[in-house]
Amino acid sequence: MFARFGDLCAQTGNVIRYTVPNTYDRNRARWPNHPLWEVAVAEIVSDLSEMREGEDPAGVKSVIREQHIATLIKNIRGTSVTLAALEGRNFEALPDFFGQVATKLTNSVNSEPEHVAKMQKNAQDRYTFVTE
């Protein structure tokens, strides 16, 4: 525990944030870090340096990323099945319906490329701690 406590605290400081609320943006993921949080994370990293092993977290990141991807795929499937039910599709029509949903999503990206690019950038920034 002593050898890895600094790593744990540093990683926690990257994953959990204390932010400055923005009343005009309800999406907390876009709120900036509070200056106090930036100081706290910097102090954690420097003060606990003797309690850091510095081991490459790539293996753990890979597992977390794969688990999150699996969860998102399940969510997409569940949402798509629900959408099919709301549109009155039966089970046999699901494969074709999924293709239609993919086409609708592609059209949406093509009709709002700037907005979708911003969404993707926000997602990349939010999940930077588990990407390669």
In short:
By secondary structure, the protein is an all-alpha fold. 64% of the residues lie in helices and 0% in strands. The model has no long low-confidence stretch (mean pLDDT 85).
Overview of the structural elements:
The protein has 132 residues and is mainly α. Helix content is 64%, strand content 0%. The protein has 5 helices and no strands. The protein is elongated, with a radius of gyration of 20 Å. It starts with a helix and ends in a 6-residue tail after the last helix. The model has no long low-confidence stretch (mean pLDDT 85).
Descriptors for this entry?
single chain, 132 residues, mainly alpha, 5 helices
Number of helices: 5
Strand content: under 5%
General shape: elongated
Rg over CA atoms: 20 Å
N-C termini distance:
26 Å
Taking the sheet with the most strands, its summary is:
none
Structural class: mainly alpha
Please bin the fraction of helical residues: 55-70%
Mean pLDDT: 85
Low-confidence stretches: none
How do the strands and helices of this protein lay out in sequence?
Blueprint lengths: L4 H11 L19 H13 L10 H29 L7 H18 L1 H14 L6
Helix pairs in contact: 1-2, 4-5
